[in-house]
Amino acid sequence: MLKISKDQIGELLNIWAKGAKVFVPQENGGTSQFKAWEGQGKLTLGEGNALEPPKDLFFPRTETMYRYRVRDPEASLEELAPLEEKRVLVGVRSCDARSFAIMDDVFLTKGYIDEFYRQRRENTAVVALACTTAQPTCFCTSFGIDPGRAEGVDLQMWPLADSYLLEAITPAGKDLLEQAAALLTEAADEKVPAAAQPSLTADVGGVTEKLQQMFEHPYWEAVSRKCIGCGACTYLCPTCHCFDIQSENRGDSGYKFRCWDSCMFSEYTRMAGGHQPRPSKKERLRNRFLHKLQYFPERYGKFACVGCGRCLDRCPVSMDITRVVREVKEVTL
Amino acid sequence: MSTIQEQMRTRARELLTSGEVKMVVGWEKGALWYMSPPAFITDPAEVDRLVWDEFCHNNLAKYLLDYKFSDDRLAIFVKGCDARGIIRLLQDKQIEREKVYLIGINCPGLKDERQGAVLGEDKRAELPLAARCQGCRHPAPVVYDELLQDEGTAAKGEVAATAEDRFTATAEVEAMSPDERYAFWTNHYDRCLRCYACRNVCPACNCRECIFDRSQSGWCGKQMNRSENMFFAITRAMHVAGRCIECGECERVCPEGIPIMTLNNKIIKEINTLFGDYEAGLDPEAMPPLGKYKLDDPEEFL
User: Fold this and answer.
1) Which end of chain B is more exposed for a tag (fewer CB within 10 A), N or C?
2) Residues of chain B contacting residue A225, judged by C-beta atoms under 8 Å apart
């Protein structure tokens, strides 16, 4: 196993930035965000995860899909150039690494491949950073995630007092280590540190089967009362992936874009003619939890929650999915 | 004298048992020690869920809109800022006074929950006052049906801050050059997720249908970019102009930590200069400055 001094992490990023665009958690207006590394910046690789999940790098908040021009009687379409930018994503925690596998299911399986997502995903190397301290809102282990070792990544890092240990997992990870060979030394005595142990837990066994019988249960009315119906939970969730597609027109030309959308909003389900199948926060909140804990497991065989705790941490009313899981299992049918 | 929390539970039990109200809205403990989210109690057997501690932030007035079309009478607990929210909603004719029973609490000022998450429970006693409480001038409720009394906090239920304290952050931004100011606001609003937590938590935001829930109206598009985010920020700030009760809930709940009150306070400051000092949500009879017309209103722009 190799190691690098924490003092040299900027140099390491500079080396990787020669052949790719490097994204790493950095301080931004009092929050921690995955931002492009431009040679300097205040890294936030210490305790705790970035406020926003890195999903934006594969599935941007807003992206143009194609452009068009209409000049009667002709109309033309302009496809966008393929996304060829090479990226290295550094400092991904185990929870967010699991979220990539979940997003892959959505965008790359079941007979449809989303080209925007695929190109970004294939052009990105992922460098994980193990967690040795859990945040109060963390509960990744409830979903079988090991905070000490991420799944499906190219390179794994572990923090020590003054250095990081590094282990290549894939050829792409090995390549990243070779690029930085001058900065790395062999780790002789250092041991992989113990993984974080979250104190919050959710016993999700059997929750899908219970939820399958609970669509009309009065529980949803009670649990949704405090919800204020904002979209903070969905936008900060590493696995929420709903989007809308709209047009922006200027004169005779315009473009189609897609942007994140949230099932917590009334407009999300409003139909032409005004019908609203999810008229209140009860139906909307229910949908969010059913999607995470019932619909996704039914379709893809896994929960669409990774226990990162961002929703609980930032919810204006501290809506707690671990409590919802517990209460769902307790209510009588 | 019993604690505020004990009185809360006692009164909630009495009100529910007697049938005077169908539901009591207060606060309860959340997943972690620094969380005290809203609680909705309908069963007298559950009143012991209610808590009163330094994290009971949520302004409960807004929830009355959820029960606008219900015939049931509700009881809610009101701190100074919740009570101003009540007046605000009454002035907008959003709620009926007789359908809500208000139990006042003299608020000692609440603590910063984010710091709680960072510092840990060992430091609970040392947590700083929440940002939203630092400029508070009315910790005592301005409207209530009964007031809970507690020896420990009653004395503090007086004007806590000076009129100018709340404009400190605004003055710092005013002192910037135009370019610096542009960089300041774009840096913050580029992070805006347009989750609308600020709007949804705000007692001044009570439109039946919000412009931002009509993305195809052509006013504000759904793209999350600088232009649309700024349009959202400015429109919302102007829309609550003269009606913002300064509870600071918008800024507290913003997941991205955007200093929304710095913007709202700028507008409050301008209104005070143009139309005379006014504080929203204090006097039900005082018309909001932008809601009334006076012959001597300033009109330099004409």
Assistant:
1) C
2) 38, 40, 63, 66
